[in-house]
Amino acid sequence: MHRRLVVCSLSLALLAAAGLAWADPRVEAREHFNRATVLVNQGLQEQAIVEFQRAYELMPHYAVQYNIARAYVALGRPIEAVDAFTRYLEEGAEHVTKARRAEVQSELLRQKAKIGEVTLSVEPPGARVSVDGQDVGEAPLVKPVRLIAGTHSIEANLAGHETVITQVNVVGQGHETVEFVLRPLPPAKGALRVDCAVPDVSVNVDGAVVARTPLAAPLPLAAGTHRVSFSRAGYVSREQPAIVVPGGTASVDCGVTRVVPVPREQASRLMVRPTESGARVEVDGTAWHASAPLPAGKHRVTVTRAGFVRWQREVELTAGRTLDVVAMLVPEEEFRKAYESRARRQRMWAYASAGGGVAFGAAALGMYLWNDHRHGRWNDEEDALRHAYSASGPVDFDDLDRRQGENDELLDSIHTVDGVTVALGVTGGALLATGAVLYLIGDDPNRYGVAAGAGPGSARVTAHIDF
């Protein structure tokens, strides 16, 4: 899918509002739509969707749903894409051309081929169900849950009951049924909070796996001493006791460390490229160096730089492959304003220097042309005097000496003006060159014009076979 999407135009009902007052929702909708198209062409699909949806809220027009759907396709989110395409066809009805309807229906088939359904049967009623950490509702769930093809983690929990977690493999256009029966827990006497910078670490309490990091909340445990161990492929397992007191919350740190060297069959690599120089990159809470291999699986990447919003993503690495992540940092408001102010001052000096260079150059050119004309006069007079001195017959030497003196003074003046002309030309060239250098090496005041206020930034991720 190309990053630059084809944007479906809104109807005249949205675009013809240019002459209306700013308070007109059509005008505001058009502004949001225009911002969205700019973000789409820059590859910032998530931010573009926010702008498209705001435009649709202000002025519900079916064409906007097409653009929202295309953005979801680019993000690899087929479920949202199918919903938006379906809404586009339903709301557009007969207004959608045959060619566009055929295109959308074809895309719908492609996207639906990536989606499967899972029917969740959960007992007892009232249990909360989440898929991959996202809440999907409370039991009983009337409708099947649509999921992208692949492996998903399904969790069901209810206060006073055991939390049940299972994995389900969803096939495109397939249907699975998962049943949960949550058994009541004995009265909770305490809790255990697990701190772990490494994601996807199995948490084992008293010989049973109870969760994987990161944990959204402390684990309820009976009071007493428990054996807590942590394990993950490619990491050194660790076990430690945890003492839980009635009504209290104990804390443990998983403290797992990577196996060194990483086994070849588990080794993968990660390249993190921040959009700002001087940024600090951390993987799983420690400083990261791209030369070191990592165990395959999930890892938490954090990028920080003074003046920018903290950027954090969870990535999943595949053995034998390199994942290339571009971390797009968004400046904080205060930093952005200071940057733009400084950049504008640099541009002002660049323009002023270049303008001064042009003015000095123009003056030098004018003086050169004027002085060249004077040099011609001097040369003509010099020729006339030479002929007069050598002429036969009576010669008025006093008059010739006077004329020679005046012509010599003119030559001195010409030489002086030549020096001034050269000085003006050199100064003008230096000013012009200085202005060009200031413009080229100076900061761009519009660098953060679009990103400002857009949120925590986004990432562009590519993977390729590396070793």
Topology:
Layout: H1 12-15, H2 25-41, H3 45-58, H4 62-75, H5 78-92, H6 98-112, E1 115-123, E2 128-131, E3 134-138, E4 145-148, E5 150-157, E6 164-170, E7 175-181, E8 190-195, E9 202-205, E10 208-212, E11 219-221, E12 224-231, E13 235-236, E14 238-244, E15 249-253, E16 257-258, E17 267-274, E18 280-283, E19 286-287, E20 294-295, E21 297-304, E22 311-317, E23 321-327, H7 333-389, H8 397-441, E24 459-465
Parallel strand pairs: 1-7, 8-15, 17-23
Antiparallel strand pairs: 1-4, 2-3, 2-5, 5-6, 8-11, 9-10, 9-12, 12-14, 13-16, 17-20, 18-19, 18-21, 21-22, 23-24
**How many beta-strand segments?**
24
Name the strands of the widest sheet in spatial order: 3-2-5-6
Percent strand equals 25-35%
Q: What is the number of helices?
A: 8
Q: Please give the radius of gyration in angstroms.
A: 37 Å
The helix-and-strand class reads alpha+beta
User: Can you tell me the overall shape?
Assistant: elongated
Helix content: 25-40%
- End-to-end separation in angstroms reads 27 Å
Unreliable residue runs: 1-6, 9-22, 451-455
- For the record, the count of structural domains works out to 5
Biggest sheet character: 4 strands, antiparallel
pLDDT averaged residue by residue: 85
